[in-house]
Design brief:
By secondary structure, this protein is mainly alpha-helical. It contains 32 helices and no strands. The chain is elongated. It starts with a helix and ends with a helix.
Length: about 625
């Protein structure tokens, strides 16, 4: 029997499969009840089947392990080796059921492992963890990945000199879990494991890939520029090793497009265009390369207000639409082109054409969250332009779809902003209230947003100011004032921050009857006007605040000066062609006439704020 086993193994080494199987069969006929014969045959077939072109032997090996386990059900090595074989088969054939079977066999081995050495136990924990990691990738269940990480930890406690493959498997499991649980710490753990693998790998190719994935994922979560720098470093490292890897160029370009949305950066979009050109030279027929190239060009054209770039993007997407008319990524890029055209020409029809492309893309793949997001943002823009409640309703529905598919803080900001606009434009207080909750959730998820994203604070502060008007509570105004002030400390030139800070101070002064906030507001109106000369909205709000300040002032001389200054500003607004100045002007004339009898009389700031809803007073009637 032993001679036949030895001859069979020799035949396998010589690639004589027929002779090897014949000797195995002879050994089994000599001792058909001996589990060791089946185990030896299974191990030999496993080894032979691991080579290219001999994969069919793997299934034969599995059958022999099954027979060995039936004859000797309490033998640890049989179950362990059988489980290892099934894991290999799952990886090679890319069939999920092999991983499930491997998990069952290795779990049985674990139940029989009480007398095994630490080295063997370490190998078993590693094998079980690797199987669970593969299962987690397919199932999407965090529990599988969490259990795998527990087993990786147990294995690392038993062996100090683990190879690079162990740390790569562990790092990949952290990345798998990061797609299921929104925790930046998981990327950090993957980075730690990948760096340990890099110290053990000769070329560190796989560890570099993991470091790229981890740092890009970490940046998209944290928005920390240090993470962006690290991701760029490892992309550069990988490029130096494989300059003709088209997938690397494409991945880099996609990351740069995403990064440009987080932190405004023309250099990132320009570099993305360059990387797409490189990828196209290496893989000209890849539609994803072209769609990313078009996306980068459209975004760059939008940022720089360059029609040439937008038209270049349009030419590229037109050329590929004939070849790939049913590719959702191409349709997404085409929609971005049309959106950019709408921005450039200020033409609504382009936005509706963009919507058609986004919808066409979703008809092909409804899991593309960026299509839902683009669709929602376009409808929100149209709602803002046209004052359409219906467009905003559609925008919110589509943005909710995007958020359900991707817990992106950028998506959440757009959703909260749209809610706030609906609350403001259509006096739907429940929407403003919900917007406040979503802004709070946004700042909780992105704690560094107070320093990195002043535009998020700006929109939240506007919503707080709106809620202050609704509830007539000073706390809303005070928090809005605090946020506007913080924004100006971060970015003194932030557009419209001075104006909105002045408005919030005016509202607080009107509510409380205090002169100090109104006086501070006039200072900020003056600063706001220095950024936007001849801005009639600023002049109108400033004039209204001056009228209110005059109403609260007990010094008749100062009151007269404030009224004269307000009158001059209202006259300037009328010269600019804004008819909304007539209502506060009429109020001012009324106050001047009643000033002697009612020095304490007050102009209701909330009424003045809604002058656009009041019929314009004819100038002749005023005379």
């Amino acid at each position: 029997m032993h001679l036949h086993l030895l001859q069979a193994e020799t035949a396998l080494l010589n690639a004589d499969i027929a002779e090897a199987l014949d000797h195995f069969d002879r050994a089994i006929r000599l001792d058909p009840k001996n589990p060791k014969v089946y185990l030896s045959q299974g191990i030999a077939l496993f080894e032979a089947g691991s080579h290219k072109g001999k994969e069919y032997l793997l299934r034969k090996a599995s059958k022999q392990f099954k027979k060995a386990a039936q004859l000797q059900p309490h033998h640890f090595d049989t179950w362990h080796t059988w489980g290892s074989l099934l894991y290999f088969m799952g990886t090679h054939f890319e069939e999920q059921h092999y991983f499930t079977q491997a998990h069952e066999k290795l779990l049985r081995a674990a139940q029989l492992s009480h007398i095994q050495s630490p080295e063997t136990l370490c190998e078993l924990y590693w094998d079980r963890a690797a199987v669970l990691s593969k299962m987690a990738t397919q199932s999407g269940e965090p529990c599988d990945a969490l259990e795998a990480l527990t087993l990786f930890e147990k294995a690392s406690e038993l062996e100090n000199n683990l190879p690079a493959e162990f740390w790569i498997d562990r790092a990949n499991t952290y990345l798998t879990l990061s797609a299921q649980i929104p925790d930046p710490h998981l990327f950090t753990q993957a980075i730690t494991c990948a760096k340990k693998a890099a110290q053990l790998e000769e070329e560190a190719t796989e560890s570099t890939r993991i470091l790229i994935t981890a740092y890009t994922g970490l940046y998209l979560k944290t928005h920390d520029e240090d993470d962006f720098t690290q991701a760029t470093h490892y992309y550069t490292t990988a490029y130096a090793k494989k300059p003709k890897d088209a997938s690397l160029w494409l991945s880099w370009a996609q990351f740069l497009c995403q990064a440009a949305r987080i932190a405004s950066g023309l250099k990132r979009l320009q570099l993305a265009v360059d990387r797409c050109q490189g990828a196209h030279l290496l893989d000209a027929d890849n539609p994803l390369v072209l769609s990313t190239w078009v996306e980068a060009l459209a975004l760059l054209g939008k940022e720089t207000d360059s029609l040439d770039l937008i038209l270049t993007a349009e030419d590229k997407v037109s050329s590929v639409l004939d070849k790939e008319p049913s590719d959702p990524d191409i349709l997404y890029s085409w929609g971005l082109c049309l959106h950019a055209m709408g921005d450039y020409f200020d033409e609504l029809d382009y936005y509706y054409q963009a919507i058609e492309q986004f919808q066409a893309g979703l008809s092909l793949d409804r899991t593309k969250h960026r299509l839902w997001h683009a669709l929602g943002c376009t409808y929100s823009l149209l709602g803002d332009i046209e004052g359409s409640d219906h467009n905003f309703t559609l925008a919110l529905r589509f943005l909710e779809k995007a958020l359900a598919l991707s817990e992106s803080t950028e998506y959440l900001f757009d959703y909260a902003t749209t809610l706030s606009k609906v609350g403001e434009l259509f006096a739907k207080i429940e929407y403003a209230e919900k917007a406040g909750l979503e802004f709070e959730r946004l700042l909780h998820l992105q704690k560094n947003a107070v320093y990195l994203h002043p535009q998020w604070l700006f929109r939240y502060a506007i919503n707080l100011d709106l809620l202050g008007n609704v509830h007539e509570e000073a706390s809303y105004y005070e928090r809005a004032i605090e946020m506007f002030s913080h924004i100006l400390r971060i970015d003194p030139d932030f557009p419209k921050a001075q104006h909105h800070l002045a408005l919030a101070l005016s509202h607080l002064g009107d509510l409380s009857g205090a002169i100090a906030p109104l006086t501070q507001a006039t200072h900020h109106y003056r600063l706001a006007l220095s950024y936007e000369e001849d801005s009639d909205p600023i002049l109108l709000d400033w004039a209204t605040t001056l009228i209110n300040l005059g109403c609260h002032n007990y010094d008749s001389t100062q009151t007269d000066e404030l009224y004269r200054e307000a009158y001059a500003k209202l006259g300037e607004i009328l010269r600019l062609g804004n008819p909304h100045a007539y209502y506060p002007l009429a109020c001012l004339f009324s106050l001047i006439g009643a000033c002697k009898n009612s020095r304490n009389r007050r102009v209701d700031r909330r009424v003045l704020n809604h002058t656009k809803h009041v019929e314009v007073i004819n100038s002749k009637a005023l005379a």
